[in-house]
Specification:
Blueprint lengths: L1 E3 L2 E9 L3 H13 L5 E5 L15 E2 L10 H20 L3 E2 L3 E5 L5 H13 L4 E5 H7 L7 E5 L3 E3 L1 H14 L3 E4 L3 E6 L4 E5 L4 E8 L5 H7 L6 E13 L1 H4 L5 E4 L11 E4 L5 E4 L3 E2 L13 H9 L1 H9 L1 H12 L1 H9 L10 E14 L9 E5 L2 E6 L4 H19 L9
Parallel strand pairs: 2-3, 2-13, 3-10, 6-15, 13-21
Antiparallel strand pairs: 1-2, 4-9, 5-9, 6-8, 7-8, 11-12, 12-13, 14-17, 14-18, 14-19, 15-16, 16-17, 20-21
Bound molecules: flavin-adenine dinucleotide (FAD).
Length: 412
């Protein structure tokens, strides 16, 4: 950290104290020993948003287009995540999961998914309906496959462990500090905050639901906007919870990046059904009552929003009805486990996905980074970004380290 007449200058400022911002800061400390790194997080605690509100599944990497960043970073990242959790005492396991076709028309899609999984190097075991019942006795499967590499992790616990590690290595995590406009200077960036401004030689944006705004506040013009897709869950309680042993997933609709309502027994032994995917009325819209005029106007002004709604109005309407009617939501879960009793399923806290949408109304499928002058912004990092976070952080740190022309020892 340097003090000049312009104030304090640090080597790198990372905006966002979710799992990606913290993994990036941690990887930067390894690449640039001695560099001064500050993470700015607007909430009072790290991992308040997506990182602390998800399904907690370590994905094996079966869904993603071969050769995509998602495929590459999720398969490598899953293994690395397991190792990290074991080393740092974070709750995790490799419980495996079942993917099931519940009707004849889903069988070709299940077969296509199995091929994709193999193309991504994921080991799967094809199962008959009887074999599927050995894993999940109450599942309504016509055909299925099992993925042994899928696991579960406490991603908020991972973020907390990364934060401790970053601080122990001399980094600074400033919670309760919102980053505002960032202006390019002769030596890097001047970042306005709701406290004192901060100067940095390099700026990294890992702002999740606000990723596009943070990039725009630093002069970038990303050709996509974040739309918030709320993922609602139901708690499965009582005798119905005993009907689910582990992780049971449907065959996803290949048109969407969301996996469809699934059933997960968490590390805490609680069973959840969900998440659905419904457009939220605010970027941090965890309930229907959370609305933001600013967020709504921003979404309406983006041409991609109306095109997206025009293109996907039918599945969007189904998701909306499922959000408004517990009966419909339960029906989706019952396609997997028909004996679930509606009386045992209760509303649970939701999460909101940050999903980038381009101006043509297409959902960005892959992870997306936006490169700028002495800056790099994560624009699209939905699921499986928690699984892949350590690999994404390493990728960003490599790019930042390259941009510092001198050897690592000249940093600081
Ligand atoms: C319902 C749901 C289920 C999911 N399930 C899984 C799963 O099972 N497995 C998996 O791998 N992934 C899953 N994901 C995806 C995963 O949770 C996210 O991809 C991951 O957490 C993204 O991390 P992040 O750090 O980018 O975002 P976040 O955790 O949202 O962190 C961004 C941070 O930036 C901060 N911030 C924003 N703007 C500013 C600013 N101006 N100044 C300072 N701070 C700012 C925010 O407060 C926030 O803390 C799921 C996501 C959801 C919503």
């Amino acid at each position: 950290m340097r003090r000049t007449r312009a104030g304090v200058t640090v080597d790198v400022v990372v905006i966002g104290g979710g799992i990606l911002g913290l993994a990036t800061a941690d990887a930067l400390q390894a690449r640039l020993p001695g560099a001064s790194i500050v993470v700015l997080e607007k909430e009072d605690v790290v991992a308040t948003h997506q990182t602390g509100r998800n399904s907690g599944v370590i994905h094996a990497g079966l869904y993603y287009a071969p050769g995509s960043l998602k495929a590459e970073l999720a398969t490598r990242g899953g293994a690395r995540m397991v190792e990290f959790c074991a080393n740092y005492g974070v709750a995790h396991d490799r419980c495996g999961k079942l993917v099931v076709a519940t009707s004849n028309d889903e069988v070709p899609r299940l077969t296509a998914l199995a091929e994709r999984a193999r193309a991504n190097g994921v080991t799967i075991t094809d199962l008959t309906a009887e074999e599927a019942h050995e894993y999940e006795p109450h599942v309504a499967a016509i055909a299925a496959f099992h993925v042994a590499a899928t696991g579960r992790a406490d991603f908020a616990g991972v973020a907390a462990a990364l934060a401790r590690q970053v601080s122990a290595a001399g980094g600074e995590i400033r919670t309760g500090v919102r980053a505002g406009r960032a202006t390019s200077t002769a030596t890097g960036w001047r970042i306005e905050t709701d406290g004192l401004p901060l100067n940095a030689r390099f700026l990294v944006g890992c702002a999740g639901l606000h990723a596009d705004r943070v990039a725009r506040a630093a002069g970038q013009r990303p050709d996509a906007r974040i739309l918030p897709f709320r993922g609602e869950y139901l708690d499965v309680t009582g005798p119905s919870a005993d009907l689910v042993r582990g992780l049971v997933y449907p065959v996803p609709d290949p048109r969407f990046p969301f996996l469809g309502v699934h059933l997960t027994r968490g590390l805490d032994d609680h069973v959840h059904a969900g998440p659905n995917a419904v457009l939220a009325m605010a970027r941090e819209g965890y309930r229907w009552s959370n609305t933001s005029i600013r967020d709504l106007l921003g979404a309406v002004a983006w041409p991609g929003t109306t095109r997206l709604i025009g293109r996907y109005w039918r599945p969007g309407l189904e998701e909306l009805l499922r959000s408004l009617s517990r009966r419909r939501f339960v029906s989706a879960a019952r396609r997997l486990i028909p004996d679930l009793d509606r009386a045992d399923l209760r509303r649970a806290p939701a999460g909101v996905r940050a999903q980038a949408v381009d101006r043509r109304g297409s959902l960005l499928d892959d992870f997306a980074l936006v490169d700028g002058d002495r800056s790099l912004h994560v624009l699209n990092a939905p699921s499986p970004a928690a699984t892949a976070s350590l690999e994404i952080g390493a990728l960003i740190a490599d790019q930042v380290a390259e941009s510092f022309t001198g050897p690592a020892s000249s940093i600081g």
